[in-house]
Specification:
The structure holds two protein chains of two kinds. Chain A contains eleven helices and no strands. By secondary structure, chain A is mainly alpha-helical. In chain B, the strands form two sheets. In chain B, strands 6-7-8-3-9-10 form a six-stranded mixed sheet, sandwiched between helices. In chain B, strands 2-1-4-5 form a four-stranded antiparallel sheet, sandwiched between helices. The chains are: A mainly alpha, B alpha/beta. Chains A and B meet through helix 7 and helix 8 of A and helix 3, strand 6, helix 4 and helix 7 of B.
Chain lengths: 283, 286
């Protein structure tokens, strides 16, 4: 009896060890892949990075020099366009969900938003192509902005809602008990209390769209001339990487690596700011 | 002689209680609340049943009773905060200066302006400074206010709340940086800054230490010259110390709160008419 027990114990110990090794390996592989992607892209990218790349516009193949100034600028323009459209909608939707909607309506909207957040971004691109690019007979910066906005809205709305919900109900009651109307209480008391969470959500959404390529292929198309008007195509870093990486020319492939490096730095930078903002606690 | 006067006062109070609105309009009716057959629900659960009482101006009215007897629900009905809670619903009426605050055309925002409230847990707005906390009621109800006007109101309110000397050098610090007792007095200052007629206090001292509690009680005595005060407390000594009038609540067999006895504090505590009141104040239950 005693013997049997000990054998069982030894077996359990071995299973425990095996599971520990397996799960540890899985975790290590996940981290390794991330490190490889980041490391490889950064090492390759940094070696091709130089000042002309940042300050000059693209030149035709064969000419020396040329850079991606216009694409960097284009990425920022597209982020700005997406944010201008998505932030008011997303934030107001978040406020509505957290403060006004009755539970049933809120659950429906929340479910819809979560599905929208899960829609593959290429589908969003095709959708905007159908409703904007075809009727306007042109690829355009604004349709790229709309496509990015559609991706941003659910992220912003849900994070805003979550952080508004974290503000204690006692704050709302205290404000209402002073004879403050509902919307003034939301603006003056609840939103300031949720500010760090809301900013975190916005930054996350920006980081998410900064590297999007698929929705831009059908909308902003890409261009090496920078902003020529909202109704004209515009380039972005992600589109540049896509086009140059497939190019047969060595110089363009190198620029794609450099572009990938810049994009990683941009997204990483945003993530670091997010960590910094969200670590400052409120309540 | 003294006894005679006491009896006279009691009779006066009784008369006061029996006054129906519209009849007893002798003199200043400001700050008088007449509660008539008030019932309140949370969803389908009846929380208080058929409560009628009149609340005098410039007096402290204490509501006592064991936990779960609807004291807080009752006081939250008095400035229409009950309906803010999920599923909160009321029936009956509460007359403020002869007008039903639950009438169709009554605006809860205006009513809460006239009947202020301080909650159990000190709840200063953590994102605001001490100054902004006190000014919040004015700042967030008007579109703009002059700085000097706000300064005047803030100083006056903090002085009334006996907090000015302690915070006058840190008006720009966060309201959350004060001690618990100071935070609660800050909340009282915030409530009186909008110049209500009645102040409702929902167990304002239950989260505070004895020294802070004493300060708030002194504060109530000084405020009662200008405001009517209704306080919910489960501390009977506190009710006996500060209040002029007292109402005893108890949950009935359906677990809904009912008003057992209401009268002058001295009478309710020394010579209660109802057996249940006597059992409660002598500590036999609750």
């Amino acid at each position: 009896m005693n013997n049997l027990n000990e054998r069982g114990h030894a077996r359990r110990k071995w299973i425990n060890r095996i599971m520990l090794v397996l799960s540890g390996t899985a975790a290590a592989i996940a981290i390794l892949i991330l490190a490889l992607i980041l490391g490889y892209a950064m090492i390759r990218g940094i070696s091709y990075l130089n000042l002309t790349l940042l300050t000059q516009a693209a030149r035709p193949v064969g000419e020396t020099g040329g850079g991606m100034r216009n694409e960097i600028f284009g990425t920022l323009i597209l982020i700005a366009l997406g944010s201008i459209i998505a932030l008011p909608i997303g934030l107001l939707a978040g406020v509505y969900l957290a403060e006004y909607a009755n539970p049933k309506v809120a659950a429906t909207i929340r479910f819809t938003a979560d599905i929208l957040a899960g829609v593959p971004s290429i589908v969003v691109g095709v959708f905007v192509y159908a409703i904007m690019v075809i009727p306007m007979h042109s690829y355009s910066a604004i349709s790229g902005g709309v496509a990015l906005a559609i991706i941003m809205v659910p992220v912003v709305a849900r994070t805003a809602e979550e952080s508004l919900r974290l503000v204690p109900a006692s704050m709302r009651e205290a404000a209402l008990a002073l004879g403050i109307t509902r919307w003034r209480a939301v603006i003056g008391v609840v939103i300031p209390g949720a500010m760090t969470g809301i900013i975190t959500g916005i930054m996350l959404a920006v980081a998410r769209i900064a590297g999007e390529t698929a929705p831009l292929l059908f909308t902003a198309l890409g261009s090496s001339f920078g902003l020529q008007g909202l109704m004209k195509p515009i380039g972005s870093l992600s589109l540049l990487i896509y086009h140059y990486a497939l190019s047969p020319y060595k110089s363009q492939q190198q620029q794609a690596w450099a572009g990938a490096f810049l994009l990683i730095v941009l997204v990483l930078g945003i993530s670091i700011v997010v960590r910094w903002v969200s670590n400052r606690k409120q309540f | 002689m003294e006894e005679k006067i006491n009896v006279m006062i009691q009779n006066m109070v009784k008369e006061d209680n029996q006054n129906k609105p519209g009849l007893g309009n002798s003199g200043d009716t400001k700050g008088i609340l007449e509660v008539q057959n008030l019932s309140a629900w949370y969803g389908k659960t009846l929380a208080i049943k058929n409560i009628s009482m009149s609340i005098r101006s410039n007096a402290i009215m204490a509501i006592i009773g064991p936990s779960g007897c609807g004291k807080s629900t009752f006081i939250r009905c008095l400035n229409r905060m009950h309906e803010v809670s999920h599923g909160g619903r009321t029936e009956g009426c509460i007359m403020l200066d002869g007008k039903d605050i639950y009438a169709r055309d009554a605006d809860p925002v205006v009513i809460r302006r006239r009947i202020g409230m301080v909650f159990q847990k000190p709840a200063p707005f953590p994102t605001m400074s001490v100054f902004d906390n006190v000014a919040a009621g004015l700042k967030l109800t008007q579109f703009w206010s002059r700085r000097w006007e706000l300064e005047e109101v803030v100083e006056r309110s903090l002085r009334q709340a006996a907090l000015w000397d302690e915070v006058k050098d840190k008006l720009n610090q966060s309201g959350a940086s004060l001690s618990g007792g100071q935070q609660q007095r800050l909340c009282i200052a915030r409530a009186i800054a909008v110049q209500p007629e009645i102040i409702l206090l929902d167990e304002p001292c239950s989260a505070l230490d004895p020294a802070s509690t004493l300060k708030i009680e002194d504060l109530m005595r000084s405020l009662v010259t200008q405001y009517s005060i209704v306080i919910v407390t489960h501390n009977m000594q506190q009710a006996a110390r500060v209040s002029d009038m007292a109402g005893f609540f108890l949950a009935d067999q359906d677990r809904a709160g009912i008003l057992i006895e209401y009268g002058k504090t001295s009478q309710l505590f020394t010579n209660p008419t109802d057996k249940r009141t006597e059992d409660y104040i002598t500590g036999r239950f609750g």
